[in-house]
Each structure stands twice: as C-alpha cells, then as structure tokens.
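Data card: per-record layout.
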Amino acid sequence: MENYYSLLGIDYNSSSQDIKKAFREKAKRLHPDIAGSNAETKMRKLLAAYEVLSNQERRYEYDRIYRNFIQKVSFDYRRFLQEQIDDPKSLAKLIFFDLLHLNEENALEIWKEQGGIGFGLDKLLDRGDYMDCTFLLAEELEKRNYYYEAFILYVSIVKSERKESYFRHFMAEVEGALKEIARIKLKGAVEKKIYIECLGMLLDLGFSKHDEARWMRSMAEVLIQIKDENSAREILQEALKLDPNLPNVVQLKRKLNIKE
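The structure for this 260-residue chain is written out next.
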C-alpha cells in the first residue's frame, strides 16, 4: 500500500497548504523533459496521493486504513488469513486485504466462493471495514459488468449509512454510482421482474421525491412490457402524486388510460 505522505515528501501533520505546495513542487519535477519516460507513471501516483490527502474526508479514511496496514505488515498477514480456511471472519478480512492491495481478482474469487452477496460481510467485519470493503467490492463488480451484484452492495451501503453516518460527504459518490447503475446499466442485465424489484429497493432508501417518481415511472414502463397494466397504472399514478410535472409520461398515460 502506497504511503501518500512519503510520495509528496510531507509529514502526517501537514496542513492543506503544505500538501498543495508539496504537490506543485513535485509536479514541476515530473515534466517529461526532466523526468523522462517514467514521468507519466510517477505523475499518476502523485495525483492519486494529492487527490486523497487534499480531501479532508478521504484523508481521514486513508489514515485509518493505512494505520491498520502498518500494523499488519510486520508479519505475513495475508498468509495468516489464507491459512484460516474454515474461518469466515478471516476470509472476509482476506477479501478486504486483497482489495486494498490491488489483488482484486483474488478478492472477487474468494467472495464468490463464499456466496457472493449472500456472504455476510456486515457480520464478519468491523463496521468501518465493512463499509470500505463493500464499496471497493461494488466498484470492482461494476467494472466487470456484474451490475446486479454491484447494485445490491451499493444498496446495502446506503441502508447502513442511513442508520448511522460513516462515509458522510463521500456518500454522494456512492449514491451517484447506485443511481447510474439503476438508470443506465441494470435494466439490460437482469430479467424484467428482477429489475422491478431493484427499483422497489430504491424506493425504501429515502431518496428525493424527484428520484422516486422517476424510478416509479420506469417501473410502470416495465410492468406494461410484462402485461401487468393494473399495477403499472397504480404505480404511475403514485409517481404523478409525487411529481405532478414528471416528464416523459404522455404516452404512458395514454396506454394506461390515465386522464389529465
């Protein structure tokens, strides 16, 4: 795991101004004419360090994870976890460890072998580790087009966050990823009835009326496709109560005989 403070040449108590100054000075030295062919790789690492440490929320989270990492590298922690093949808690920790160390394929393989979304990470990891691990898993699954599994994990994060804040301002990124999957990626990846169920999950998460009305409109569209016009009519009427100005409903209202 990279030490971002060392990359920038600063100490752990550096201020935001110190971080910005160090980044600028390092970045100047990485001009291609100075750093040569290795400039691009070094610049990517430098940017990653700056983006994390210049954000208060992400810096706090990085510090917490890095402290845990330092405590574990004094011995072969990964091998220790691997040897605990009959201990679900150790396997959950191994998944998280591999995700943090960019061994994503192995992490996903273990996760799938242990039941995938049925593997109770929330009961096996401390809450902070559970939230971080689940988010990293969801990201990797989404990259590999496992949209349903990623969706379920993002939903679980939002549910947990609603009960007790952990990610705080970072939740905007989580919620954005969840909405994008629901809006663009999920529909073509699952059966229609499952897609309706997924949209129903979103309605229980406490999003805005604006969002809920659009998800209900999507539910109505799919319900029409599976010939359940009565349910489609009911859900669209509920959507219009939430948002009387809901766009793209003229054709739906005609199909369902809903009068203005």
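Known properties of this structure: Residues 162 and 217 are 25 Å apart (CA to CA). The first helix runs from residue 4 to 8.

See the next section for split statistics.
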